[in-house]
Design a protein that fits this description.
One of its GO terms (molecular function) is ATP binding. Pfam families: ABC_tran (PF00005). This is ABC-type Mn2+ transport system, ATPase component. It comes from Deinococcus gobiensis (strain DSM 21396 / JCM 16679 / CGMCC 1.7299 / I-0). Keywords: ATP-binding, Nucleotide-binding, Transport. By secondary structure, the chain is an alpha/beta fold. It folds into two domains: 151 residues, 3-Layer(aba) Sandwich (Rossmann fold); 72 residues, no CATH class. The chain has nine helices and nine strands. The strands form two sheets. Strands 5-6-7-3-8-9 form a six-stranded mixed β-sheet, with helices on both faces. Strands 2-1-4 form a three-stranded antiparallel β-sheet, covered by helices on one side. A hairpin with a 2-residue loop joins strand 1 and strand 2. Helix 3 crosses helix 4 and helix 4 crosses helix 5. The C terminus is likely disordered. The chain binds adenosine-5'-diphosphate and magnesium ion (MG). The site of adenosine-5'-diphosphate has 11 residues, from strand 2 and helix 1.
Length: 240
C-alpha cells in the first residue's frame, strides 16, 4: 500500500539510507526501530514527500495523492509549542492545513475534531493554550490532529518520547485500533518490547534495512546485534 524500493538518501556526502526496500500494508501496525542516526526519520520524511531529493521509488498504491491520505506526526521537539493557539485550533489544523486557515471549517470538520479530541482524551483541555500542556498531553494533541485528518496512512515519528507509561499504553492501543480499522500505521520507536507487544510488523534499520517481518521473524539476538552494534553505524563519517 505504501513503500519504498531501492531508496537511497544522502545529505551532502553522507548516506543516511542505502538501498532500502520496504512495504507497509493497510491493516498493519508497523514499527521502525534502530539507533540514533539510523535513518528512521529520513525514511518517514521520504514517505511523506518531504525529501524530494532521493534515489529510488516511493510507492503509494491507494490511488490518492500523498497529501490527501497521509497523516504525519513529526518528532515532537521539532514543533513550536510557544505558538499562541489552543488544543482545539491545533487539532483543527488536521482539517484545514498546517499553514493557516486554508479553508473555513464546517460542521463536519468540527464533529471530526471533537471525536479526535475525545478519542485521545484531551477534549476537556480543548480551550487550553498548547504551551501550557505536559509532554504527554502534547503528544495526545498531535495524535488528535493526526486522527482529524482521517487519512488512510498514519506515520508517527517517536510519538511516545517524553510520555508517561500509562499514556504510552493508551496511545499504542489507539494506534492498534486504527490499524485494525484498516489503516496502515507506521511508527518510529526505540522501545522494542512495546513494539513486539502491539505491532504485527517490525523493521530494524541501521542505514540499511537489517530485518523486516513479523515480530517472531525479526526479534532475534542476531538481528538486534546487527542493528544496534556500533560497528554497523555509518561511522566512516565524523559525527558532530
Ligand atoms: P534517526 O531518525 O534514525 O535518528 P535521521 O533520519 O534523523 O536518523 O538521520 C540519519 C542521518 O542523517 C544522521 O546521521 C543525521 O545526522 C543525518 N541527517 C538527518 N537530517 C539531516 C539534514 N537535514 N542535514 C544533514 N544531515 C542530516
Ligand atoms: Mg529521528
Amino acid at each position: 500500500m505504501l513503500g519504498v524500493e531501492h531508496l537511497t538518501v544522502r545529505y551532502g556526502s553522507q548516506v543516511a539510507l542505502e538501498d532500502a526496500t520496504v512495504r507497509f500494508e493497510a491493516g498493519s501496525f508497523s514499527a521502525i526501530i534502530g539507533p540514533n542516526g539510523a535513518g528512521k526519520s529520513t525514511l518517514l520524511k521520504t514517505l511523506v514527500g518531504l525529501l524530494p531529493d532521493h534515489q529510488g521509488a516511493v510507492r503509494l498504491d491507494s490511488g490518492h495523492s500523498a497529501q490527501s491520505c497521509v497523516a504525519y506526526v513529526p518528532q515532537q521537539q521539532t514543533l513550536d509549542w510557544a505558538f499562541p493557539v489552543t488544543v482545539w485550533d491545533v487539532t483543527m489544523m488536521g482539517r484545514t492545513g498546517r499553514l493557516g486557515w486554508l479553508r473555513w471549517p464546517g460542521r463536519r470538520d468540527r464533529t471530526i475534531v471533537e471525536e479526535a479530541l475525545r478519542e485521545t482524551g484531551v477534549y476537556d483541555l480543548r480551550h487550553r493554550h498548547i504551551g501550557a500542556l505536559s509532554g504527554g498531553q502534547r503528544q495526545r494533541v498531535l495524535l488528535a490532529r493526526m486522527l482529524a485528518r482521517r487519512g488512510h496512512l498514519l506515520l508517527l515519528d517517536e510519538p511516545l518520547t517524553g510520555v508517561d507509561a500509562t499514556t504510552q499504553e493508551q496511545l499504542m492501543a489507539l494506534l492498534r485500533a486504527q490499524a485494525d480499522a484498516g489503516r496502515a500505521v507506521v511508527m518510529v520507536t526505540h522501545d522494542l518490547e512495546q513494539a513486539r507487544r502491539w505491532c504485527d510488523h517490525l523493521v530494524l534499520i541501521n542505514r540499511r534495512i537489517v530485518a523486516d517481518g513479523t515480530p517472531e521473524q525479526v526479534y532475534t539476538p542476531h538481528n538486534i546485534e546487527a542493528t544496534f552494534s556500533s560497528s554497523h553505524l555509518g561511522h566512516t563519517h565524523a559525527e558532530a
